[in-house]
Design goal:
This protein has 354 residues and is of the alpha/beta class. 41% of the residues lie in helices and 9% in strands. The protein has a seven-stranded parallel β-sheet. α7 (150-160) links the parallel β5 and β6. α6 runs parallel beside α7 (150-160), α10 packs antiparallel against α11 (245-255) and α11 runs antiparallel to α13.
Length: 354
């Protein structure tokens, strides 16, 4: 997600997120650029500056963080219907590429589905070419995330699915969930946000019933090494990787989350690494521990993704317990809901308003 105002007013910020002077690499196409903001003219200027290098522009109306509330964007725009509709109308009327919108359900209690569908119809009327629906409200985040409402998404599909594609989002842990979500919602596709950050090969038969919930794809060490190699090919501060090394640290922390809970020395190294080489050292140390312990990759399970779900004998989830331990480092991690609003992992700028 890119903050539209910072993108057009701060050259340093723009270079962090966009460094394609001669066009977007073919390996990245098709590509949709997601912006946030509440000023239609600012959003249009930002989108216009890259419209010939992407295949679509998405408006983020899903981020539920406090930073989005302060900046008046993300899920908070859903409660300003006229402003939001005007933004979509302005973009769709002036761009040569499709405009899509990522939304949540409105936090209006029992009427949330009906109210949301009414708003989504207006967005399609304004020119939206696709709607991605996260089956939760902005109030469902962090320790209050709760279950995604796939039935609500199904009702959205029934209401507007004959007009535009509808993508379902929320509650996707493995490929079984992908198939179950498509069956229940009848959506045109499925988006994953959090689980895929911990296990990128999510759209494969790993951790599914057919594999007895075992991991059949790459293990945590291999994922970490592969990611480091990609980071070397695409240097941290080039090509739109935000704050560079901080972003890389966060991803390695996601991959190794299960291991880092019991290895504070390696966790500290991951959290404070000042170079890719130091992160490689941390991965080497973790691999040695795996080898010495006879680690079985097939037995690896999700850890970071289920941090709010797994409850111990003390009645606390792993994340609740974390907040009670002063010794556990934050690892420059975003807030718990930040995987929904990925921009939060890319540092701070303009008084945090992005």
């Amino acid at each position: 997600m890119i903050h539209a105002r910072l993108f057009i007013t701060k050259e340093a910020y723009k270079k962090k997120f966009w460094d394609f002077i001669h066009g977007t690499p073919k390996e990245d196409r098709p590509l949709i650029a997601q912006f946030c903001g509440d000023d239609p003219n600012v959003l249009l200027e930002a989108a216009k500056s890259i419209e010939h290098h992407v295949d679509g522009v998405d408006l983020n109306c899903g981020c539920p963080q406090g930073i989005a509330r302060r900046g008046n964007y993300g899920a908070y725009l859903l409660e300003q219907a006229d402003t939001l509709v005007n933004i979509v109308k302005t973009l769709s009327a002036s761009l040569t590429i499709p405009v899509t919108v990522k939304v949540r359900l409105l936090p209006t209690g029992e009427a949330r589905v009906e109210d949301s569908i009414r708003l989504y119809h207006r967005l399609v009327d304004a020119g939206a070419h696709m709607i991605t629906v996260h089956g939760r409200t902005r109030l469902q985040k962090g320790r209050d995330t709760g279950k995604a409402d796939w039935d609500a998404i199904r009702q959205v599909v029934e209401a507007i699915g004959d007009r535009v594609p509808v993508i379902a989002n929320g509650g996707i842990e493995n490929f079984d969930d992908v198939k179950a979500c498509l069956r229940q919602t009848k959506a045109d596709g499925v988006m994953s946000s959090e689980s895929i950050l911990e296990y990128p090969p999510l759209f494969t038969n790993s951790h599914t019933e057919s594999t007895s919930r075992q991991r059949t794809g790459p293990g945590r060490i291999e994922l970490s090494r592969d990611y480091i190699q990609y980071a070397k090919i695409n240097p941290p501060n080039k090509g739109g990787q935000g704050s560079g090394l901080k972003c890389i640290r966060v991803h390695i922390h996601r991959f190794l989350h299960a291991d880092l809970q019991s290895t504070p020395n390696i966790r500290d190294l991951v959290c404070t690494a000042q170079s890719v080489e130091e992160l490689e050292q941390a991965i080497d140390l973790m691999e040695k521990i795996h080898n010495d312990a006879g680690h079985v990759i097939q037995e690896e399970q999700k850890s970071w993704y289920v941090r709010h779900r797994v409850v111990g004998e003390d009645g606390l989830s792993a994340q609740d317990r974390k907040f009670r331990k002063d010794s556990i480092m934050t690892c420059d991690e975003p807030e718990d809901d930040s995987a929904i609003c990925v921009a939060a992992m890319f540092g701070n700028d303009d008084n945090g308003d992005y």
